[in-house]
Description:
Blueprint: E1 16-17, E2 20-23, E3 28-30, E4 39-40, H1 41-48, E5 51-69, E6 76-96, E7 104-118, E8 122-123, E9 134-137, E10 154-156, E11 160-163, E12 168-171, E13 176-178, H2 188-194, E14 199-218, E15 221-244, E16 250-257, E17 261-269, E18 280-286, H3 290-306, E19 314-320, E20 334-337, H4 342-357, E21 362-367, H5 374-385, E22 392-395, E23 397-400, E24 406-409, E25 412-415, E26 417-420, E27 425-426, H6 430-436, E28 452-455, H7 471-479, E29 482-484, E30 490-493, H8 496-499, H9 502-518, H10 526-541, H11 546-558, H12 563-568, H13 573-582, E31 589-590, H14 609-617, E32 630-637, E33 650-657, E34 662-667, H15 670-703, H16 709-715
Parallel strand pairs: 8-15, 18-19, 18-21, 19-20, 22-29, 23-30, 32-33
Antiparallel strand pairs: 1-2, 2-7, 3-7, 4-7, 5-6, 5-7, 9-17, 10-13, 11-12, 12-17, 13-16, 14-15, 14-16, 14-17, 21-28, 22-28, 23-24, 24-27, 25-26, 31-34, 33-34
Helix pairs in contact: 9-11, 10-11, 10-15, 11-15
Amino acid sequence: MDIFQFVDRLSSEPCLMGDELYIEEGKWFRWDQIQLASLDAASLKERYGDQFSLSLNFVGKLLIKVGISAEGKSFTWCGEKTVEAHKPGMGACEIDLGRIQTGTLEISLHALEESVVFDSPVCDTQKDIHPEHVLYDFLSPTYELCCEEPLYYRFAGDRAYYSFEDKTVHLKKDTSVDLLTYFNAFSSVKWKKYTNVDHLSAYLDFAGEALAEIIHISEKGKSVLAAWKLKAARRATLELPLGAYPDTGIIGLRIHAEQECTLYGGGYLTDAPETQPVRLGIGITTYRREDAVKASVARLGKAIAEHPLYHDAIDITVVDNGQTLAPEDIPDATLIPNRNLGGTGGFMRSLIHYQDEGAYTHCLFMDDDASCEAGSLFRSMSFMRHAKDMYVAVSGAMLSENVQFIQWENGAWFDKSCHPMHCNYDLRDSNTLVLNEKEDAPQPTYGAWWFFMFPINNVEMYSFPFFVRGDDIEFSYTNKFNIVRMNGICVWQEDFKIKESPTTLYLDVRSHVLHHLVLEHIDHGPAQILKMVWAFFHRFNWAYQYDTANAIAMSFSDMQGGPKYWLDNMDTTKIRAKIKKRYTQEAPRPLRRGYQDIPEARENIRLPFCTKFIRKVSLNGHLLPSCMVRKGMSRLGKYQVPFVNRIFLRDEVLVHNEINETEIVLKRNPRYFMKNICLMAISSLRFFRSYKMLKREYRTFLASLKQDNFWRNTFNK
Length: 717
């Protein structure tokens, strides 16, 4: 809220001279002396919300004090701030009306030294925007990809809205739009640290009259960096020069309509020169997901072709492991048929393709089932163009495909197991966006291949032939990229919990063990590896998921065959066939009607000590007689993991997945439970004895992947 928007410019107050208010040192000035009308608290809350900033353009040193007066009530202070500027700049005072229902807002300024308050500068001149100066454009929701408006725009006022039909923001008088959102905020902390972008501007494709403010939010609070009065009788492109910007938090625009307005678009600009030319090769690996990959390539290809700067700087390659696509299916991409070597083989094939081409500086690995805003791609390109460190790689966050504003992972680190960072963040909240930009300790150690952009020339090691699961971890570790994450760069994917199955756990466990054997800095010896594997195993074996637990035991045993095991099973055909044939209990079936009538297996959050003790010594009830088990079926949702607490002393549990409309039935089976423990014990003893030999064999093989000979020979078979 700009303090000058309420001024009566015809006021006889001698301190007010046109668009400037002069206050002598030591003087108090009450703003109601020059107000057009009193400031009603209820009306302000409706316009701006419970918490907002009072901003002013000034020079000098001022104490701002804000309070509420109401008839029959004591005066209530709701904001106070000392601001100082030795040249014209912005100051702001945060106002909290959360507990205020009625009353009049009163503003007082105390000049701690001689000060001048100015009206905001007018921005009304059409500007020509050069594509090479644009860092990235604002994004808008779409029905095809994501229609969660708060990820793009937040509105105040009933008559402010985004039109999906004409793709514009409409603001009636006294309404506002906030672009301090996941996709449209500017990550000042990351751009300042990693790029040469020291000065920033915003531009708006706009019509109408409004007040525009650039807001900065950090862990220390919120402030207004600059403000302008926008005036455009017809559609025009207006530039808002900010200049130098803070090196913390995030920056975003807030536009308050003084008359009816329309926002057609906008973005962020810089005059900083690029530090390196960037030509990007996108590698997408697919296996019999024709519809998904055709839709992704068509959407990205169209956006790339229409981009004024990057239309000839980005290429798409699809590696078809299923060999079911034809070139005419994806005219916007190069098609490379490949035998099914999983994601690992597909991505290595695309990397070598772009290395052979010789014209590309960077590569982006992207899953075929990952939905991505094209704007995330262009934002990453601009970041790379201005990067100061040539080892910088950009890792995209994963957002939930089912609840699109929930973040599953924004970077991850690996030590004994995978640890997703900033998990379950609700990205609709601006304060959460500040936390999402924090560079926590530990730093991310790998970038997931659903969106991972990296410099090709800095690749020192090719990936181990994992097929899938774990390849991105080892690739990031062995190539020592400086991984950066930021708001607005992401994909939407199906949640990991939904994908859990005996197959995925088989692949997960073998890759986890291998990482500990080949990566020196996370090798903690055989005892720690066994502790990790048994933790995986117990989680499922104790929860009646005996098939998955058995797959974990089998995986642990199989990978002790050394590199030969991996080379003999690069396409995992035999492994997947064996898993499909052996594990039928956890094979999904169509969800039955009336499943909600089955009583829910409620979680025992506060189990008494004796119950916890019994659970442990009885191995979650498996050693207790069947007469102590509750008969009949209970139900659990797929998301209600881990199941261990909930299934204790239950005979049968239906696990339902409402999203995919499937179910599995888990039944208590002490004999299967003990069989799995015996298998794990045998494998553990064998591993302990062969640990040194396995480590030596695997590290010798990994060293051979510094050259591309292994993968070239594999592709030529």
